[in-house]
Write a structure and sequence with these properties.
The protein is of the alpha+beta class. It folds into two domains: 264 residues, 3-Layer(aba) Sandwich (Aminopeptidase), CATH 3.40.630.10; 208 residues, Alpha-Beta Plaits (2-Layer Sandwich). It contains eleven helices and 25 strands. The strands form seven sheets. It has a six-stranded mixed sheet with strand order 1-2-6-3-7-23, covered by helices on one side. A five-stranded antiparallel sheet has the order 18-19-20-9-21. The protein has a four-stranded antiparallel sheet with strand order 4-5-25-24.
Length: 482
């Protein structure tokens, strides 16, 4: 146990403290699934697991409320596993090390996993507590949300009896979400032409680090730098020099804005100084451009062990031109909902291996036509560069229902319990509600949560007192629904 277990409300924080010790990578949720099933077995609660690995646990209504309509609570089990490059940490076995920073809990050089670990902990707390008022409950724990909502996409809807669902995967206080964007990923694969290294070429490594990154849905409007796009821009500034790329990598997840990017290049000895000056000058321009949002951005250029081959100069230029052509950031704001990002794209990852460069983009929109149009732009840019294009099926958005009965109940509970009128919004991030609503027609849904900042980055932190208010709202809502 850590200091986290002593925070209020203790039922929630004790479960979250346990969760910090359980590895839970996307597509590798077996250990966290075993953990929640152990809690269910200990409480003698019925549970079911579908073929994909999603879990539904049932709890009868409290005394006198057994006949109330069933309510579903829903969170996802997996987390984004990001760490700073100088941190020695193995997500497959190491426990996350929490730290307190004033009113926040963060982790030590890694993501905290409060997205969606706080939601999971809240559900386990409601499962465990015996003095709450509630109707029949179903606890839906989905898998593999962070890599494309694939757990929800495979859910067996027949496991669910309830038709009102509270999603606990939001990250802002005093906001009730009733809609979300849909989205889809694209892979662009370039076949690179290798050429041997000559005796007059030197090998250099470029590391662009120190950017904030963040969630490509929640944080895309903050206009933070994308390390991949910026490294491509820095390298392209030296296009008049005949350098060649040996490797190019960056980003770690489709829904995380890249914080770091790395390249190994070879350059003729007589052009080394000109190359270094070109990239240094471009970095200076970029640092001024992004000084208010990414003040800790830095680039190192160091000697590296020699490599045997590198891409030829035309392949190098093609890769950099594609990387800098691909759209990143907000493409359009909503015409209908103030301050809502309608459409965006994240140039998410790049990986070079075995003569190829694979770039992944993640596109979001609350308007299907806008989503399709931006994905066609990405496809067109890739085709001009000669890339092979693989488009993955888009997941659906969630259309707001402002006449929702569940919305009215939660708004009333929010006013009565917390003393304020919540804002009702849609979110640019993808929530599993869109898929669940399509899989189970007639589902009345809402999403709310505590304050979680900078998810999907090692700066991730959760506001302690907001978690207490979030849990009060949740339990008050369950009592009202009963």
């Amino acid at each position: 146990m850590t200091f986290v277990a002593a925070l209020e409300p203790t039922p929630l924080w004790q479960h979250f403290d346990d969760i910090l010790t359980v590895p839970r990578a996307s597509k590798d949720e077996e250990r966290i699934r075993a953990h929640i099933l152990a809690v269910a077995k200990n409480l003698n609660l019925k549970y079911q697991t579908d073929d994909a690995g999603n879990v539904v646990i049932s709890k009868p209504g409290s005394t006198g409320h057994e006949q109330a309509p069933t309510t579903i609570l829903q969170s996802h089990l997996d987390m984004v596993q990001e760490k700073n490059s100088d941190v020695d940490f193995d997500f497959s076995k190491d426990a996350i090390v929490p730290a307190r920073d004033g009113e926040y809990i963060t982790a030590t050089g890694t993501t905290l996993g409060s997205d969606n670990g706080i939601g999971v902990a809240a559900m386990l707390a409601v499962m465990s507590e015996t003095n709450l008022i509630h109707g029949p409950l179903e606890f839906l724990f989905t898998i593999d949300e962070e890599t494309g909502l694939t757990g929800a996409a495979q859910i067996d809807g027949s496991l669910l009896d309830g038709r009102q669902l509270i999603n606990l995967d939001s990250e802002e206080e005093n906001i009730l979400y009733v809609g979300c964007a849909g989205g889809g990923d694209t892979h662009l694969t370039l076949n690179m032409t290798d050429a041997p290294i000559s005796g007059t070429e030197e090998t250099l490594t470029l590391n662009l680090t120190g950017l904030k990154g963040g969630h490509s849905g929640c944080d895309i409007h903050l206009q933070r730098g994308n390390a991949l796009c910026l490294l491509g821009r820095i390298l392209l500034s030296a296009q008049d020099i005949s350098f060649r790329i040996a490797s190019l990598n960056g980003g770690s997840a489709h829904n995380a804005i890249p914080r770091e990017a790395f390249a190994t290049v070879v350059v003729k000895s007589e052009e080394r100084q000109a190359f270094a000056s070109a990239v240094k000058n471009e970095l200076s321009v970029i640092q001024i451009q992004y000084q208010s949002v990414d003040p800790n951005m830095s680039l190192t250029v160091t000697d590296s062990d020699p490599v045997a081959t590198a891409w030829d100069h035309p392949s190098t230029m093609t890769a950099l031109q594609l990387l800098t052509t691909l759209p990143h950031g907000v493409d359009a704001m909503s015409y209908d909902i103030p301050d809502l990002v309608e459409t965006s794209n994240n140039v998410a990852t790049a990986k070079s291996d075995a003569g190829t460069l694979v770039i992944t983009t993640s596109t979001r929109s609350s308007v299907d036509a806008s989503l399709d149009a931006l994905r066609r732009r990405i496809q067109a840019g890739g085709q001009l560069a000669g890339a092979q294009i693989e488009e993955f099926a888009a997941y659906p958005g969630w259309k707001p229902n402002l006449q929702s009965h569940l919305l009215e109940v939660v708004k009333s509970a929010h006013l009565n319990e917390l003393g304020t009128e919540p804002d009702v919004k849609a979110i640019h991030a993808g929530l599993e509600c869109g898929i669940i609503g399509k899989k189970v027609p007639g589902m009345d849904m809402i999403s709310f949560g505590p304050i979680i900042e900078f998810p999907h980055s090692p700066d991730e932190r959760v506001h302690i007192s907001s978690v207490e208010r979030f849990y009060r709202l949740l339990t008050a809502t369950l009592a009202s629904l009963a």
